[in-house]
User: What shape does this take?
Amino acid sequence: MDLTANCIICGKASYQGINLSNGQKIHKKCIRQKQNNILDILNFISFRRDEISKINREIAEREKLSVKIFSLFKSYSQTLEELKQRIEVCYKDIESLEEDLEVSKSYLIPIYDFYIDYPPDWEDRKRKALIREDNRCQSCGGNDFLHIHHHIPLSRGGTNQLENLEVLCESCHIAEHKGRKFSYSSGEERELAFSQRLRLIEKAIKTNQKITFLYRKPDEKKRHKRTIKPFKTESIAHRRDNNFTLCVRGFCDLRQSDRTFAIKRMRGLKIL
Assistant: This one.
């Protein structure tokens, strides 16, 4: 079942777009256009606020006694009343722009919910999760070195939605991942291992190169080396629930046929 064919923004084919954890895809150019629209709005708001500050400075300067006397002998292009009216217009523009900003952001939120990495609004999501839990670890109640943990991993169809984000201290986070160490005390998140694998796979597809990796099936105890020439990624729907597993399909050197591999089960992936 391949649900990755069409970009959910423009509706056109998107075989090498950005994969989402719900099995859909988006074109990079489509999401970039939406993001640039937000930047444009923010720039317009900043411009209007700068204009208000400039006008207020001019009004304050004119209202000084010495300037009032000097102004009797000088004409200005705008009167004080006209300057104040201009400020009102700027405030109305800002109000309208802020409404447009909220609409643009609300369009991106459900897309960022399914990013297979930390989305651009990750800091805001972290802040909301920390506020929800009163800056306490949900496991032990501690408040040192707090991390944000995906309850259902993105690699298994999990989301960046608030209900899927858990606040854990560093020790509890390490325990949750069965000993895997984290170092987020600096406040900087690193690229997720899963999204890093996906990025390398997409690069290999684009450059027509082979990849090699260690792979273990659900019923196997050991990982075995595999070498494939990938040609597409696809999301396979689970039989037991409504989640998806993102996979890569390619020609397997060992089997000498096309095979599908779950990206979450790959380790040590390299481009040859």
